[in-house]
Amino acid sequence: MDYLLKANYKKIGIVLLIMSLMITACGSNSTSDNGKETIVFAELDWDSVVFHNEVAAFIIENGYGHPTKAEMGSSAITFTALRSGSINTYMEVWTDNLGDIYKEAIASGDIIEVSTNFDDSAQGLYVPRYVIEGDPERGIEPMAPGLKTIQDLPEYWEIFKDREDPSKGRIYGAIPGWEIDEILQQKIKNQGLDETYNYFSPGSDTALASSIAGAYEKGEPWVGYYWEPTWVIGKFDMVLLGDIPYDEEIWLESYGTELPPADVTIAVHKDLPEKAPEVVSFLENYKTSSSITSEALAYMQENDATAKETAIWFLEEYEELWTSWVPDDIAEKVKEAL
Fold first, then answer.
1. How far apart are CA 95 and CA 267, in angstroms?
2. Residue ranges of E strands in 107-259
3. Among 94, 148, 232, 268, which has the minimal tally of Cβ within 10 Å of its Cβ?
4. What is the mean predicted confidence (pLDDT) over 304-324?
5. Which residues contact 299 (CB under 8 A, 6 or more apart)?
6. Domain check: are 203 and 317 in the same one?
7. Model pTM?
8. What residues have CB less than 8 Å from 56, skipping those under 6 apart?
9. Burial class of residue 30, CB neighbours in 10 A (0-12, 13-18, 19+)
């Protein structure tokens, strides 16, 4: 997930410029037959942003009469396109990922932050709940009843024994190439967990998810890195292990606290309030949560549903929520379209 990669924008250089110009050339805004502006979304390579794009698009098309489209690209490319105006709507800005470049875009007036989509995202080391509490329905006894924080892990290393090196436990790590992978390796070393655990690289996000699913189905112990919102967290009952509360000074020195929080915002290009003020008013009210998003992603996974089908499921299941984002007459138009 791009949110965790934290791309180094200083190294993008001419490639970023060329790609931005390509998006501008083929993704510039247009108007429909009714004279309404086409709303262009940033499409990225993770399911949650595609899901939120589809929810917003369905409401915008059927409630406000604006056509919509999506332009695919990396975080760096699409965010540059947002600043230039060839993309005008970004439903998931992982502000911690973009860092100073996001603040600069806000300060310069190129983009406007209109809402916080969700502010309860999380990442860290997880275990299945049955590891701590057991699962009587499945005949699983608690394996590590005192496990509450990552500082407790050394006491339970034998529960998570590494099959390839039985002298230590195994912690499943993040994906190679993601910045969090390097952070976790350093964090585990700094906190002495490497004395009792091996850091195991899963190789890909699919392999990491599969390791959780396989352990969960068998009722086996598992500890490792994951994040939310994701379908994995929506489908499986996982517990995020506690850590020392986030402190910026300690974090910068040794990664010795929980990972820093990240707000996920909705941002638009500076011209959109003039071109489509009613759409911006809708987006200002758009707010979900990590748990709702994870539930939607789990629905998508379990039902082999498309993002659009999942958006329709959401609009049917969470009518009380989304109708609070729009005026009554707009809500009625969307309901009729459903």
1. 10
2. 111-118, 122-128, 161-162, 165-172, 197-200, 224-228, 238-240
3. 148
4. 97
5. 234, 305, 310, 313
6. no
7. 0.79
8. 41, 68, 89, 91, 282, 283, 286
9. exposed
